[in-house]
Specification:
heterodimer, A: 316 residues, alpha+beta, Beta-Lactamase, Helicase, Ruva Protein, domain 3, six-stranded antiparallel β-sheet, 8 helices, 6 strands, rod-shaped, B: 75 residues, mainly alpha, 4 helices, globular
Chain lengths: 316, 75
């Protein structure tokens, strides 16, 4: 297949410039997608870790608040009993001031309760229906909860722990409870145990909300990165750059090829004319000072010689 | 015996006329009635004028004139 020098030059320049650009564009697109997803994954990992740490810290803070509430109420009740050493449990239950001290709010939805530390009979509760109920029934209905009470042992030590509580909506939610036994007994010799309990999620709720917000933002960012890196728009940008480069290369290589092939074509034309004995058009107007200029000068001298000898042979 | 001057003349002419320069020199010297070996600087004006006339028609007029001017510079 016959190919002109111009086609060869233009083809070579096109291949040499566009193929690397296409390969570069492909890998740049791949890398940008990978980089974007890597950033999102790292951000997600950092977000998860910070939320876990925040949740843990808030839960610990909640435990401390619940514990403090239990100990504070126990201290208040103990002082009250010491101030009223003659009052029996029944009298204390009838005493509104004591009842107000015994049942106090914990967190947003929790409350303190007071039971007989020995018999585990509920004596003070926010719901009057629960007064008189026996916590031993929890041994089967909620073993986790009952285990916390049992931790106290025969020496009435403080006990605490988590248990799951079945709500009215049928969902089990974790609660934290702390129990403190009053050091002073009532006039009829009964040791009371104060319990403070509430949902631990009340304290970790801000972290959960932040987690939701972070997850939402990350999901949006992930979608945007995927959209920007994998969208048709990005591919079009690469395609446009390649097309513009191809056009520039074609134009530049065309003029470059013309600057080389035009004098060669002229020399070829004159050589053909001379070889056929046609000396009418042997003008060579090539003035470039490169290899082609040298070739043109040499050829021109040969043409002058041929013309001279032809003139001489005609006149002689 | 070719002298250094005559070699310079041949080279100057060869730049314009190529391989025919030796024959051109011999023909013009014949017109001048001298041998090429006898060509001397004092004869360069005549020689150059004859070269210009000889090359006119083969080279362009300006090129023929330039070739003659270059030869005159050798005297």
């Amino acid at each position: 297949m016959k190919m002109s020098i111009m086609i060869k030059l233009m083809g070579t320049m096109l291949i040499v410039s566009v193929i690397p650009l296409m390969v570069l564009g492909f890998f740049a697109l791949q890398d940008s997608q990978a980089l974007g997803l890597s950033v999102v994954n790292d951000a997600k990992s950092i977000g998860d870790t910070s939320i876990q740490q925040s949740t843990l810290a808030l839960n610990q803070l909640g435990e401390q608040i619940i514990q403090q509430k239990s100990m504070d109420v126990a201290k208040e009740l103990d002082l009250y009993i010491k101030d009223h050493p003659q009052e029996t449990l029944a009298q204390l239950q009838a005493d509104p001031a004591f009842s107000a001290l015994a049942v106090q709010p914990v967190g947003k939805t929790g409350y303190t309760t007071v039971m007989d530390a020995t018999t585990l009979i509920n004596r003070f509760h926010s719901n009057p229906k629960n007064i008189g109920t026996d916590y031993h029934t929890m041994a089967t209905s909620n073993p986790e909860f009952f285990a916390i009470l049992q931790k106290s042992g025969p020496n009435f030590q403080d006990s605490s722990g988590y248990y799951n509580w079945l709500d009215a909506d049928g969902v089990m939610r974790p609660k934290f409870a702390y129990y403190t036994v009053l050091p002073t007994a009532t006039a009829d010799g009964i040791r009371l145990r104060v319990g403070a309990t509430t949902y631990i999620s009340e304290f970790s709720a801000p972290a959960i909300q932040a987690q939701t917000a972070i997850k939402s933002n990350l999901d949006t960012t992930t979608a945007q990165i995927k959209e920007k890196t994998a969208s048709v728009g990005t591919e079009n940008t690469v395609l446009i750059v390649i097309i513009i480069t191809m056009l520039v290369v074609i134009v530049v290589s065309y003029f470059f090829a013309v600057s080389i092939t035009r004098p060669i074509k002229k020399l070829t034309s004159v050589a053909n004319n001379v070889s056929l004995g046609d000396m009418s058009d042997t003008e060579i107007d090539i003035t470039s000072e490169d290899e082609i200029g040298e070739l043109a000068g040499s050829f021109k001298r040969m043409v002058v010689s041929v013309k001279y000898y032809m003139k001489k042979s005609k006149s002689g | 015996m070719t002298t250094e001057f005559q070699k310079k003349v041949m080279q100057a002419l060869a730049i314009r006329a190529g391989p025919a320069s030796a024959d051109i020199t011999r023909d013009i010297c014949a017109k001048m009635g001298i041998s090429p070996d006898a060509l001397a600087p004092a004869q360069m004006d005549t020689f150059a004028s004859l070269v210009e006339a000889e090359l006119t028609g083969i080279l362009s007029a300006s090129e023929a004139k330039s070739a003659a001017a270059e030869l005159r510079l050798l005297k």
